[in-house]
Write a structure and sequence with these properties.
Blueprint: H1 13-21, E1 30-33, H2 40-53, E2 58-62, H3 66-74, E3 78-81, E4 95-98, H4 105-119, E5 121-128, H5 129-133, H6 138-149, E6 153-157, E7 172-179, H7 187-190, H8 192-197, H9 214-239, E8 261-262, E9 268-269, H10 273-289, H11 292-295, H12 300-307, H13 310-313, H14 320-348, E10 363-365, E11 375-377, E12 380-384, H15 397-414, H16 423-433, E13 439-440, E14 444-449, E15 453-458, H17 461-474, H18 492-501, H19 504-512, H20 514-517
Parallel strand pairs: 1-2, 1-4, 2-3, 4-5
Antiparallel strand pairs: 5-7, 6-7, 8-9, 10-11, 12-15, 13-14, 14-15
Helix pairs in contact: 1-2, 4-6, 9-10, 14-15
């Protein structure tokens, strides 16, 4: 790992403890570690808080190296971005503690100081001493001047990394900066005079965002909402001393104007910039997960799985980078989800409803490979499925959801060969026109009966065959040689299973069209990758 990343110098334990000792932890709740490496500092801060403070600090990490990001997430540390120098957030941190890359550490500490100058707070930083002792460019000169202005404590340490995992004899500067919180000013008070002169506020002109770029639009909207809300909270906090809760001592408090942060479920929180940002983040992650442009190709179970992550995603910036990272996770989970959903639907259409007399014709039994329970789904099946919540009133969501998931299974198997039909819209039109029989959808026709059943007739028998082959191979009902050997090269036992499953002629057609009938999920990538960053 060291050879691959020349800037990665893990902080030795002794130096980490020294950095921690410089902090007044009674004033810290939120911590950011840029260039977190494999998390030595973040882990030490976490353990210190739990052991000595009895609290769990809100710790965010940033790391450029992908391998190191995997290590951080494996340690259950939050990785909120990949590059500190491009990190853009309204979240406020009480402490930034870091060991940035020595070759451009000046850029990192300048960024940290800039963040602290907005809200106040501490910066603890390890730096190549040469950066301060030899200010050979304007950036270094600017850094030296800023550290002087803020009254930074600087300790120069010889051989600090000689006992580290990766050794270097570079002299190190340990920097501590504590910037007091800036006095809050009221925009309202400062602009009362202007309000008398201007009857209306003219909106600030902003760059136009392309309407067709959904992700960029929603991220920009998120930024706008966060910025507006943070400004409102800070304005309220600045006005608070002027809002009387009572007129004299002993009089009951009567707060006329109050502001708090509301969650999705109506729970109120004390006023906090970070709590507000967290709730807004969750709101936008929920909106993303409810958007068909982003989630439409995922089946219902995968949608629910990602929607359940909303609470934890409140700790992550709603940014194009994090959306892109989430899409990569979706791709990794998608193949497994495809297989699980196809098999779940196969089981639904066969054994799940075997106790209903009229569904007994859903399947055809054959003597499966080393099993007597092999079967495949027939062209026409019957499932318990109520079309409308009360007959003729409105489309019943579970019916549409069930059929939509079935359609998605066939979408994966079909590979885009069949012309699209909007399932939900077609069902809604059928409901309006009172049509209950032979409603034509993309891969099947459906007929609904008042007794609560749905008759599904598959219109593409080759695709249904592909569906059955996939399930048969997945469940090991078809011999391992299926699709690999010609019929005449099979053993008598293998031929017997093939004969009972489909027959010699049908099997020969499979062999001639392997690319179509023998579906391989390992080559599948159903989520379209749009450029996010």
């Amino acid at each position: 790992m060291f050879n691959e990343n020349k800037n990665f110098y893990p902080t030795p334990e002794k130096l980490v403890n020294k950095m921690i000792s410089l902090v007044d932890w009674n004033k810290v709740e939120t911590v950011l570690e840029p260039s977190a490496g494999k998390g030595d500092i973040a882990e030490a801060v976490k353990k210190y808080g739990e052991k000595y403070q009895g609290v769990s600090f809100d710790i965010d990490c940033i790391e450029y190296d992908e391998n190191l990001r995997h290590i951080l997430t494996g340690k259950d540390l939050k990785v909120v971005h990949n590059d500190f120098l491009t990190y853009d957030t309204m979240k406020s941190y009480d402490l930034i503690i870091m060991n940035p890359p020595f070759e451009n550490g000046d850029k990192h500490i300048l960024k940290a100081l800039e963040m602290r100058e907005k809200n106040g707070g501490g910066v603890i930083c390890l730096l190549n001493a040469e950066t301060l002792k030899n200010p050979c460019n304007n950036r270094r000169l600017s850094l030296v001047e800023k550290l002087r202005e803020h009254g930074a404590d600087i300790e120069y340490i010889q051989n600090a990394f000689m006992e580290a995992e990766r050794k270097t004899n570079v002299e190190t500067a340990l920097i501590k900066v504590l910037i007091p919180q800036t006095e809050k000013e009221s925009f309202i008070l400062n602009n009362l005079r202007k309000a008398r002169e201007e009857r209306e506020c003219k909106p600030e002109e902003k760059d136009q965002i392309a309407e067709n770029d959904f992700l960029k639009v929603i991220v920009e909207q998120y930024k706008m909402e966060v910025e507006a809300g943070v400004n409102l909270i800070r304005e309220y906090q600045a006005m608070a001393p002027f809002i009387l809760s009572r007129f004299k001592e002993g009089e009951a408090e009567d707060c006329i104007l109050s502001l708090n942060v509301q969650s999705q479920y109506g729970k109120g929180y004390d006023l906090s910039v970070n709590r507000f940002i967290k709730e807004v983040r969750k709101k936008y992650w929920r909106a993303l997960f409810n958007n068909n442009d982003f989630m439409g190709k995922l089946t219902g179970n995968l949608r629910r799985e990602f929607y359940n992550k909303v609470e934890s995603l409140g700790d992550y910036e709603f940014s194009l980078y994090n959306i892109y990272e989430l899409k990569l996770q979706m791709n990794k989970n998608l193949i497994k989800g495809i297989e699980e959903t196809i098999i779940a639907k196969f089981d639904d259409l066969s054994r799940k409803y075997h106790y209903l007399d009229e569904t007994s014709k859903n399947i055809h039994y054959y003597n499966g490979w080393k099993s007597n329970k092999g079967y495949y789904v027939n062209k026409k099946v019957i499932v318990p499925l109520q079309a409308w919540s009360s007959w003729g009133s409105c489309l019943y969501y579970p019916a549409a959801s069930y059929l939509l998931d079935l359609e998605k299974c066939f979408n994966y198997l079909d590979g885009g060969l069949t012309e699209s039909i909007d399932l939900k819209k077609t069902l809604e039109i059928a409901e309006r026109e009172g049509q209950t029989r032979n409603i034509v959808l993309k891969y099947f026709k459906v007929t609904f009966y008042k007794k609560g059943t749905c008759h599904i007739t598959f219109t593409n028998e080759d695709l249904l065959k592909k569906f059955n082959i996939f399930a048969g191979k997945y469940k090991n009902w078809l011999p391992p040689s299926y699709g690999k050997k010609a019929y005449n090269d099979m053993s008598e036992g293998e031929k017997q299973v093939v004969n009972e499953f489909e027959g010699e002629d049908s099997y020969k057609r499979v062999i001639e069209n392997k690319d179509y009938f023998l579906f391989d999920t390992s080559n599948l990538c159903m989520i379209e990758e749009k450029q996010c960053i």
